[in-house]
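Lab notebook: predicted structure, single chain.

Context: the supervisor wants predicted structures on file for every construct in the current expression panel, including those that have not yet been purified. This is the next one on the list. No modifications to the sequence; it matches the entry in the shared construct table.
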Amino acid sequence: MFGITTSRDFLAKLEADFDDFTKEPHSARLALNCAITAYHLHEWVWGDWLKTDFVTWKALGIRDKETFLGWIDKVCPPFSTIQQLTNGTKHFGPVQQFKTERVGAPPFMFDDRGAGFDVGVFDGPMPYEAAKHGNGYLLIDYGDGAGSHRWRTAVALLDDVVRFWQEFFARYHSIP
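Prediction complete. Output recorded below exactly as produced.
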């Protein structure tokens, strides 16, 4: 497909999508493009090599494509959010376990890229006003029940999933 023929090619596409997004971290279009690629990479991995790599099956403790997807959800918790974002691009008005929004400033979070001392607010996200906040920030709100992990910037979420895939390939698929 336009020169993207292997899962490693699709990983390179994901890395390029993420690079584009980090240059414009306020872009919902670029965030969704990256999320869609990050989610569908599991299908490329399965179809390209994992469906017949029984040594890796044993290492991961999987037995088929569905248990592979379950393994990803277990070792990369942000992946389920990526899946919901991807499914949301196919259907109008999806039911998600979180809310997505653009905010003027994200809440302060030590462990979240894009929410440092210079931009975070302490008591929750700052509502977005274009004239006041420029491009703003893309934020995921998991709700009150998520406790101290209620909010996540889209940059941090996607960064975690891109790193997961890079580490997965480095560990389990060393073929160039």
